[in-house]
Automatic annotation (TrEMBL):
It comes from Hymenobacter nivis. GO terms for cellular component: plasma membrane. GO terms for molecular function: ATP binding; DNA binding. ATP binds at G650, A651, T652, G653, Q654, G655, K656, S657. The keyword Isomerase does not apply. This is DNA translocase FtsK. The lineage of its organism: Bacteria, Pseudomonadati, Bacteroidota, Cytophagia, Cytophagales. Belongs to the FtsK/SpoIIIE/SftA family. The chain crosses the membrane at residues 94-116, 155-176, 188-210, 245-268. It is found in: Cell membrane.
């Protein structure tokens, strides 16, 4: 019977097979990990000295010194210590490593030989121990003698069958890794793959053998018997058991096990095929997947909150637009037209997120190749606080070392003596990896972990007794809230986000010069003639053709007064029979006089041509806006972050709304949703509603509001106040981080030098767009003017930028205080010179010809630009493209302001006892105790979210515990001590 093949061996050469199924105790294979002996279970952390004001490094040095003091001269350490020294000895590693390499060769030969000689050697192996070894050896047929026969029989015949060949690469890999200290390949991965292969394959083959010998028609027990070496004892017994249990279901089970292993081991989440999935079904599946992903991300975020030292996933480069030049012909045509060549966008490749890292904490590596010491810090306690006990676990001797680690995987730091910790490298770290020496440094060296810097004074500290130094490192780690040095990537939440492509924009063909030679000549003659009438003679004249106007640059003869030419503006316009003549006398920096004459046939500047320009694609600006083309046909790009706010005016129908869409589109093409948020205010209700779709990607709104685009005046007031709060909080954060502006702050946050536990977060730019200020000023007056002015004054450094448009640039709309804070202004055509002066402080905007013809003023410069044209369907397509991708679960939420939910705007809620936060009293005590009225203090101390802490501060203000908002300063605390606070709290209505 096949079932009891191993219990009752058939007579014949194989009759000497051991009577029982398996040998009692198979000798253990060579231990591949020399350092994997049981770790000292709970090596106590050396007592820490009482906290002092000493700097950390000095503390570390002192502790190290203290640790060194009692030690005597170095000498052989008896017993366990001696054994440990041996285990850490590189020579011992080489000994083991080469042993394993040769062992793998030995097994290869022995196993191969077994395929030919195994049957004959069975009796010899069985007789081992009963007959003299020499005699048995002479009998053995294996190419590697009696030992070869025994090893092959053990692994192939008794254990795994031919699947035992999978053992060879494992042994080889371990040997290779130990000898060459290679960082490639994880031991646990190779072990898992090898062991699975052996178990699974032997079971499968076992099933084949069982099936061949089964009592069924056509079954051949003799054949089964001849093939039984294929599956080995393990495979045979397992398959026999399964076969009796589930019959041929064994095959299905094995297939299922294989699929499961492949899915988990190779982390497969998508299938290469998609059989007949309907589009609706596919969409539903994707939705489900996205939901699951979002949930997983949220869970991960929650976990990260609970355990701040946990490493972040692999860094990913930010995904800027990668330009790829369009076909050469197009480039040439552009060159001919004097324009910049267009570039095609390819969304930058979005690497798929790597497998989750398994290391339990920060790992710092230094001194690779130099004498190094391994410092192990036990895992952070469950609360997530880094109250880790430092465990002196290892000593380095020479450039190599091994360490013994307690389970679970500890947080590890490697430092070189005399050198600071230079980097942290999160690596899936296993005991076996550590046994192979320090992990290789990260291929991309990350920013030095300055918070972790510590100097180990000398080699003496490389002793197990150097616990003090290790404790100091642990302190550093804890105090600095050191994090793994993978940079934070704000875009990781939407890592698959694709930037909109140029294909979404209409291609109006390549720009062509519309002005004919005759037109140029005729205009030139008329200019010369007109000036001649007034006795002005010209030395030379030159024309530059722009998209809307042509600039004639005149060099007058010596002695002609410039003011005279300027005063002839209207006369020249009359003689040229053209509207929109503008005289620039002189052209700044050129010493010539410019006369801009509108072209008879105007050229439309498509948004596609400007966003596709090389200048825009390559710009390094923070918030680049490609407005259009200048008079010299150059693409005009300006940085909103530098402006830092923009005032736009223009009579109705002159191109303001198109201009706003161009601004928004430019930013959408350049910034990731994680980096930029818009607050859109649209009193006209229809102009910006098209951007509703990108709510979950790019819009910011007040909590508990449905519509992200604000159309209601009261909501506008709340939103502006909320932005002021956001500004206040950002200033608090910047102050705490010691940064002067948003860029520095975010850079620090990305380098993980700021602790999210202390309220720090990545701060996206916020761009507030108000489409019609006149309307708001009429209905809300000061209520909007004050916060706009405050934001304009202060928000520059913290990344809040304002774009305010109005069609009535009168002084009661653009008041002095607003104007003073908007140095950057744009004017489309306005109806009067006065309006032009109001907006630009000079005339000229009244001379524009409309349809996107605009003047851009930044301080003293005035640049004439033909604004690019973007049509509503184009904006629609761009928004659709964005909204169809995975977004955040909600819009970016601005801080809640008192009275924002109720529409009265009176702020009554803050004082309503029923509405008072349950943590009100606790927050009040915290503020009074620390005498610091800041939101971030509450966030940190009470572990509150951003919005809740803000709400609490408002309630505290209402209760008279803290003073009013004071810009970048923390609020005053009005209650001097806890006693008075308790009295106040008792007297408050409950
Ligand atoms: N840059 C441009 N290039 C070509 N045509 C333009 C451009 N900008 C605007 N136009 C034309 O002018 C028309 C009006 O533009 P737009 O709607 O932007 O004006 P507006 O100033 O916002 O007017 P309103 O204040 O009444 O909303 C557009 O429909 C378009 O035909």
């Amino acid at each position: 019977m096949a079932d009891n093949r191993y219990k009752n061996p058939p007579p014949g050469p194989s009759a000497n097979r051991p009577a029982e199924g398996r040998p009692a105790a198979a000798p253990r294979a060579n231990a591949p990990r020399p350092a994997a002996e049981p770790a000292p279970a709970a090596a106590p952390r050396p007592p820490r000295p009482a906290a002092t004001n000493q700097p950390k490094a000095a503390k570390a040095a002192a502790q190290a010194q203290a640790a060194r003091a009692p030690r005597g001269p170095r000498g052989p350490i008896p017993g366990v210590a001696g054994l440990k020294a041996l285990v850490r000895d590189r020579r011992f590693h080489l000994f083991i490593g080469f042993g394993l390499l040769l062992g793998s060769l030995y097994l290869t030969i022995a196993f191969t030989s077994f395929l030919f000689t195994g049957h004959a050697d069975q009796s010899v192996v069985a007789a081992m121990g009963t007959i003299p070894t020499k005699e048995a050896g002479q009998e053995s047929n294996n190419w590697l003698g009696l030992l070869g026969a025994w090893a092959a029989q053990l692994f192939i015949y008794k254990l795994f069958g031919v699947a035992a060949f999978a053992l060879i690469p494992i042994v080889f890999f371990l040997g290779y890794k130990i000898v060459f200290r290679t960082a490639t390949g994880s031991v646990s991965y190779v072990l898992a793959l090898g062991l699975f292969t052996m178990a699974w394959l032997s079971t499968l083959l076992g099933y084949v053998v069982v099936a061949l010998g089964a009592p069924a028609p056509g079954a051949d027990p003799a054949l089964a018997h001849r093939l039984d070496f294929l599956c080995g004892g393990v495979g045979f017994e397992t398959a026999s058991w399964l076969s009796s249990l589930i019959g041929w279901g064994t095959v299905l089970l094995l297939a299922f096990v294989l699929i499961s292993f492949v899915v988990f081991f190779f982390n497969i989440t998508t299938l290469p095929f998609n059989f007949g999935r309907s589009a609706a079904r596919a969409e539903a599946d994707e939705d489900a997947e996205l939901t699951a992903e979002i949930e997983a991300e949220e869970a991960a975020a929650a976990a990260a909150q609970a355990r701040p030292l946990a490493p972040k996933p692999t860094p990913r480069a930010p995904a800027p637009l990668a330009p790829a030049f369009a076909a050469e012909e197009t480039e040439d045509e552009y060159a001919a037209a004097g324009a910049s060549a267009p570039v095609e966008y390819e969304p930058a490749p979005q690497p798929s997120p790597g497998p989750a890292l398994s290391v339990a904490g920060p790992l710092a590596v230094a001194g690779i190749g130099a004498p190094a010491v391994a410092l192990a810090v036990a895992p952070a306690v469950a609360t997530g606080a880094a109250a880790a006990a430092a465990v002196p676990l290892a000593v380095a001797s020479g450039p190599s070392f091994s360490v013994e680690m307690p389970e679970p995987e500890p947080e590890v730091a490697f430092v070189a003596p005399g050198a600071p910790v230079v980097a942290t490298v999160p690596t899936p770290l296993s005991l076996a990896d550590l046994a192979d020496g320090p992990p290789a440094p990260s291929p991309k060296p990350q920013a030095p972990s300055t918070n972790l810097e510590i100097t180990v004074p000398s080699r003496d500290d490389l002793d197990p007794n150097a616990g003090a130094a290790i404790a100091a490192v642990a302190d550093e780690v804890e105090d600095a809230d050191a994090m793994p040095d993978v940079n934070y990537d704000p875009t990781l939440d939407l890592s698959r986000y694709q930037y909109p492509t140029l294909e979404l924009l209409t291609d109006y063909g390549v720009a062509k010069a519309q002005v004919t030679q005759q037109e140029l000549e005729a205009n030139k003659d008329r200019i010369v003639e007109t000036l001649g009438h007034y006795g002005i003679t010209i030395a030379s004249i030159k024309a530059t053709i722009g998209p809307t106007v042509t600039l004639y640059e005149i060099v007058p003869e010596a002695g002609v007064r410039i003011s005279k030419i300027k005063s002839l503006e209207d006369d020249i316009a009359l003689s040229l029979a053209a509207l929109g003549i503008r005289i620039i006398a002189p052209i700044p920096g050129k010493g010539t006089i410019g006369i801009e004459v509108p072209n008879a046939k105007k050229e439309m500047v498509s948004i596609r041509s400007v966003l596709g320009s090389e200048k825009f694609a390559r710009t390094e600006m923070d918030l680049p806006i490609a407005f259009g083309r200048t008079i010299t046909n150059e693409v005009f790009v300006a940085d909103l972050a530098k402006m830092p706010h923009l005032l736009m005016a223009g009579a109705t129908g002159q191109g303001k709304s198109v201009g706003l869409n161009v601004i928004l589109a430019s930013l959408l093409y350049k910034r990731h949703p994680a980096q930029l948020k818009f607050v859109l205010v649209d009193p006209k209700k229809v102009e910006l509603s098209i951007f509703n779709k990108i709510e979950r990607h790019y819009l910011a709104k007040l909590p508990d509001t449905d519509e992200p685009i604000i159309t209601d005046t009261k909501k506008v007031v709340h939103t502006l106040n909320s932005l002021c709060m956001e500004m206040d909080r950002r200033y608090d954060l910047l102050k705490e981080a010691g940064c002067r502006n948003l860029k520095e702050y975010n850079a620090k946050f990305v380098l993980r030098k700021l602790n999210p536990k202390k309220g720090h977060r990545y701060l996206p730019f916020i761009v507030l767009v108000i489409d019609e200020l006149a309307d708001l000023m009429m209905t809300a007056g000061k209520e909007v003017e004050t916060p706009i002015a405050r934001l304009a004054q202060l928000a520059r450094a913290i990344g809040i930028h304002l774009i305010v448009a109005t069609q009535r640039p009168s002084v009661n709309v653009i008041t002095g205080i607003i104007k003073a804070n908007f140095p950057c202004r744009i004017s489309f055509k306005v109806t009067s010179k006065i309006d032009s002066r109001t907006i630009l402080d000079t005339g000229g905007a009244d001379q524009l010809i409309g349809q996107g013809d605009m003047l851009f003023s930044a301080g003293s410069d005035l640049i004439r630009v033909q604004c690019a044209f973007i049509d509503t369907p184009e904006v629609d397509r761009v928004c659709d493209f964005i909204s169809e991708q995975q977004g955040y679960s909600d819009a970016y939420l601005l801080p809640e302001v008192a009275g924002a939910e109720g529409d009265d705007g009176s702020g009554q809620d803050a004082g309503d006892p029923a509405e008072r936060d349950t943590m009100f009293e606790e927050a009040a005590r915290c503020i009074v105790l620390h005498q610091q009225g800041s939101t971030s203090l509450l966030q940190r101390k009470l572990k509150l979210g951003y919005n809740r802490a803000g709400r609490l501060i408002d309630q505290l203000q209402h209760a008279g515990i803290v003073g009013p908002f004071e810009g970048s300063k923390a609020r005053d605390v009005l209650i001097p001590d806890e006693y008075q606070l308790e009295q106040l709290l008792n007297s408050m209505p409950k």
